[in-house]
Amino acid sequence: MRSLEIHAVRDLRLAEREIVPPGPGQVRIAVEYGGICGSDLGYWKHGGTGTALMRHPFVLGHEISGRVAELGEGVTGLAVGQGVTVHPARTHGELPERLAGRENLHPQLTYFGSAQHEPHTDGAFAESVTVDADQVVPLPEGLSTRRAVLAEPLGVAMHAVSRAGDVTGQHVLVSGCGPVGLLVVLAARAAGARRITAVDLSEVARERALTLGADVAAESPDDLDEESTVAFEAAGVAPSLEGILRNAARASVVVQVGNLPTTPVQVTLAALVTREIDYRGTFRFVDEIERAVELLATTPEAEQVISDEFPLDQAEAAFEAAAGRGSSKVVLTIA
């Protein structure tokens, strides 16, 4: 089968690998779509993402959808040909008691397409992937595999919204309208936000945010006529966070969604004290992917997040598009 390996910075290669038959309690999936994530781009552009540095070649990709191709012994509740997506995380060993309910913070967690551990964890940009049955998330009736490729990043967005607490009736600000920021808009609307303001320098990104449920779209939080009570920083750059802190209401909540650099950044934090702002982090998700497929099934406009599709053998062009201006979620068509 064909798989997409990263060998070095800007060195993607299609490689032939053996199909892995499912063992007991496992499922083999024929992958149809794969979404390119910011972490995939990080390995391609810089050889790493966050603290994870690539030391040897591995297969990229953790946002996938497809159909069940083969069931291992003892697997029930799934059928060959059924549309599915996959939870890309596996935990190893007991979760510390203080982290109960927060499996995403497990100290021994592996994730598809990640160089965090040695050996690296192969991802799922491949024609076939074999996973444990409890990682498989069946698609609700009416949800296409194309739209379902957004389930993993929507799970990230829904987890970020949950980190803010109850957003019902709140004025929500989303700064940064890349794919995850757009999905935060969608998730905040589904969670009952009263008003959603999207901020991005790109007019195209702002238009997408309005399609996804934002009430207002602006170039800067300084342009707002109402303070936000909940804000999500989804651009991962210091000026975006600084703009939020300048304009956040007293006793508001700010959730850091975008990955900030591992090097020092300069941000004026005085408002955290004088306005008693809660600044919170968010990391991946726990089990929100199961709710994400339900939301996607009833939200056809979510497909507006997908801006480009490329076949697997044009992966280099797909990554160039994903790294360029004007694109949103770039998807590989695999099967």
TrEMBL record:
Domain Enoyl reductase (ER): 7-332
Classification via CDD domains: idonate-5-DH (cd08232)
Iron is among the record's keywords: no
Entries under Pfam families matching the protein: ADH_N (PF08240), ADH_zinc_N (PF00107)
Keyword Aminoacyl-tRNA synthetase tagged: no
Record's keyword terms, sorted: Metal-binding, Oxidoreductase, Zinc
PROSITE patterns, A to Z: ADH_ZINC (PS00059)
Xref: InterPro entries: ADH-like_C (IPR013149), ADH-like_N (IPR013154), ADH_Zn_CS (IPR002328), ER (IPR020843), GroES-like_sf (IPR011032), NAD(P)-bd_dom_sf (IPR036291)
Cofactor: Zn(2+)
Family designation: Belongs to the zinc-containing alcohol dehydrogenase family.
Name of the protein in its database record: L-idonate 5-dehydrogenase
Source organism (scientific name): Brachybacterium rhamnosum
Organism ancestry: Bacteria, Bacillati, Actinomycetota, Actinomycetes, Micrococcales
